[in-house]
Each structure stands twice: as structure tokens, then as C-alpha cells.
Amino acid sequence: MTQIHIQRQQCLNSENCRDPKKNNSISRENQLFGIFFIAIAIAVALASILSEIAFLNRLSLYYNAVIWIGSFIVTFTSLLYNRRNILWSSFRNRIKNSIKWPIHAKIINGMCWAGPFAAIALLPSLFPYLILAGIGCGNVSTYLLLRRYRDINDKNNNNRNAAGHGQFIVGLISLTAIPIVFEVQTSMFIVREDIAVMLSRILISFAYAVGGIYAIKK
User: Fold this and answer.
1) 139, 174 Cβ separation under 8 angstroms
2) Residue 100 carries which DSSP code?
3) N or C: which end of the chain has fewer CB within 10 A?
4) Which residues lie closer than 8 Å to 47 by C-beta, 6 or more apart?
5) What is the tens place of the pLDDT at every residue in 28-50?
6) How many domains does the chain have?
7) pTM score of the predicted model
């Protein structure tokens, strides 16, 4: 009887036992963001391969734009169309959380996301590295700021579940991929710039796939 009493008391002290609906909601959100990350991974990989084919066949930039937009539309429609309302609700919660951050935190997060992408216009030769830096710094900074300001965030926020950790994994893999792309681009065997660009995109796809799988499995 003592052991049963202890187990019952542990359950009462557990947040999941006190609020099973919240636990189920977090579990669904983990799965949803996991599917969202995997959708990004598939879209990026598909568009990267097709755009490389278009480049080798010397097609105009118009086809490149159609490939990227079409890849995301097809992938997101296939995987997320029936979940679009729930996904949008989750994004609104994230936006509400970030609005509560201090102004300096918003500036840091905005610079981490927009800074590397804006630099592409000035340094187009560094495109493979800057896109990885943007994805990496943006995801890592968002995750860290959610943790830093978790006390002012909504109770059901992403830094407390696997979706937030999945986002951190995406950022970490993207940053780790920068020296890999540099090694490939400076290799004696591979000197074509388009290969380095495609590799950076494939590594971003891989990062989102790993983050998505983690969020779903966890």
C-alpha cells in the first residue's frame, strides 16, 4: 500500500497527470511541427535537385523561380493542407510569445534571421555560407530566446517540448555544415560553384529532416 501511495502522489505532483489535455496538446504540436520541418526538408531537396537540372540545361531564372515556388506548394499542400488551421494557430502563439520579448531580444533575433540573408545581396559569392548561417543563427537564436524568456511566454510554449529542441537541432546542423561546404568548394576535385550551392541546400534539407524526425519521435 505504501508503494501505491507513493506512485499516486508522484502522479498528483506530475504536470502531465494534473493536466492530461495539455500534455496531449503538446504532443500534437510536436508532431505537427515535426511534419512541418519534414515538409520543408522535402521541398528544399526537391527544388535543389530540379534547379540544378535547370542550371545544367541553361534554362532561364524564370524556371528556377517556378521550381522553388512549385516545390513548396506541392509539398506543403500534400503534407499540411488538412492541418493548416492548427499550424497557423501554433505560429500565432509563437508570434505572441516573441512580441513579449524585450526590444533588444527582438533586435538580436531579427538580425540573426535577416542579417545573413541580407548580406547575400552584397556578397553573392558567399551565398552557400550565408544561407546556412541564416538558417542556423535564426533557429538557434529563436530557441535560446524562448528559453531565456520562458517566464513571460505562454505556458504551452515550444521551448518546453520536442518541437523547440528540433528547431535547435536544425540550427546546429546548419552551422556545422558551413565548414563542410567550404571544404567542398575549395577542394581540388570539385571547383564548380553550383555544386557548393546545391550541397548547402541539401544540408539544410537534411537539418530540417533530422529536426522534424526528432520532434515526432520525442
Assistant:
1) yes
2) T
3) N
4) 67, 68, 71, 72, 201
5) 778 888 999 999 999 999 999 99
6) 1
7) 0.83
